Amino acid sequence: MSANLEAKKVLVEEIKEKIQNSKSIAFVDYSGMTVEEDTAMRKKFREAGAEYRVYKNRLMALALNELGIEGCEDYLQGTTAVAFGFSDEVAPAKIICETAEKTKKMSIKFGILNGKSVEASVIEALSKLPSKEELVAKLLGTLQGPASSLCRVLSAPTRGLAIALNAIATK
Questions:
Q1: 8-state DSSP, 171
Q2: Is 98 buried (19+), middle (13-18) or exposed (0-12) by CB count in 10 A?
Q3: What DSSP string runs through 11-51?
Q4: CB–CB of 9/59 below 8 Å?
Q5: Nearest to 109 by CA among 62, 71, 56
Q6: Looking at the whole model, is its pTM more than 0.90?
Q7: Do 30 and 64 sit in the same domain of this protein?
Q8: 108 and 139 together in one domain
Q9: What is the DSSP string of 105-119?
Q10: Percent of the chain beyond pLDDT 90?
């Protein structure tokens, strides 16, 4: 076999591994982006524990077909980049939508969630969700609310008695 064919097989395996390890994946059309815009966006991806890569459309289509993810071939035309979200499902979608809104040069083609191909509108909706940390904080606040209310209710009679005794003592 030629070295070029072997290199392509290695790339397909790399793409497959990244797809399998990702919680969410977004495929985008990045045509028209400047180097500065792309570099700033890649920095945000690294900070969020995600990865943004450009692969050949044929290699991505081959990897997706080998994994049994169908319905993607029509989208893999022209300039295509892929954003892998390894730790947070929402982070890649948020970064892409923020960049697209700011630069007006990027558009979402489609995405993959839970091993299924989804439309661009699903990725855009995903970007509007709060991050995992925000959701955990809201959950903890919700769980802490009843406990602190119960504590206030239980301490109210004792506090009232202490206030009454203090009023009597001062007279």
A1: -
A2: middle
A3: HHHHHHHHHHH-SEEEEEE-TT--HHHHHHHHHHHHHTTEE
A4: no
A5: 71
A6: no
A7: yes
A8: no
A9: --EEEEEEETTEEEE
A10: 11
